[in-house]
């Protein structure tokens, strides 16, 4: 009985959070996150991202390493999708990550991060 009362407020909160995230990170913008926030680092920068065919997207994002050190494992964070395989990235170099997204999903990379573990 109590679950029915909580469901509308939970959905409202979830909608507000999702809309706030969508407004905060416009498509194609360079994305950085403060270095203090776990494995995410402001020095791993998404420089551009895009896609292909209009019904099934071969989505991609270019990430540049501005950290001044070699990072053995880097990837990009995707909502509701598996993140691409972690790759090594030398200082000053860029790499491109790929994933498949349908027209309904239109998944974009939110930020680049240093993958945990060995």
What report would you give on this structure?
This protein is an alpha+beta fold. It has a single domain, classed as Immunoglobulin-like (Sandwich). It is 19% helix and 36% strand. It has 1 helix and 6 strands; from the N terminus they run H-E-E-E-E-E-E. The strands form 2 sheets. The protein has a 3-stranded antiparallel sheet, with no helix packed on it. A hairpin with an 8-residue loop joins strand 3 and strand 4. The longest helix has 23 residues.
Features:
alpha+beta; three-stranded antiparallel beta sheet
Please bin the fraction of helical residues: 10-25%
The CATH topology corresponds to: Immunoglobulin-like
Total of DSSP H or I helical runs spanning 4+ residues = 1
Helix/strand structural class: alpha+beta
Strand order of the largest sheet: 1-2-5
Beta-strand fraction estimate:
35-45%
- Rounded mean pLDDT is 73
The general outline is elongated
| Main sheet record | 3 strands, antiparallel
* N→C terminal distance: 47 Å
Radius of gyration: 16 Å
Q: What's the short story on this structure?
A:
The protein has one helix and six strands. By secondary structure, it is of the alpha+beta class.
Q: Strands, helices and their partners?
A:
Blueprint: H1 2-24, E1 44-50, E2 56-65, E3 71-78, E4 87-89, E5 94-102, E6 109-114
Antiparallel strand pairs: 1-2, 2-5, 3-4, 3-6
């Amino acid at each position: 009985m109590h679950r029915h009362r909580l469901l509308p407020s939970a959905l409202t909160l979830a909608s507000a959070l999702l809309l706030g995230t969508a407004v905060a990170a416009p498509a194609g913008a360079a994305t950085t996150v403060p270095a203090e926030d776990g494995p995410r680092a402001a020095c791993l920068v998404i420089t551009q991202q895009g896609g292909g065919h209009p019904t099934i997207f071969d989505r991609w994002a270019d990430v540049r390493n501005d950290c001044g050190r070699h990072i053995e494992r880097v990837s990009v964070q995707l909502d509701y999708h598996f993140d691409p395989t972690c790759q090594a990235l030398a200082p000053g170099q860029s790499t491109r990550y790929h994933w498949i997204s349908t027209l309904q999903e239109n998944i974009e990379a939110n930020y680049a991060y240093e993958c945990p573990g060995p």
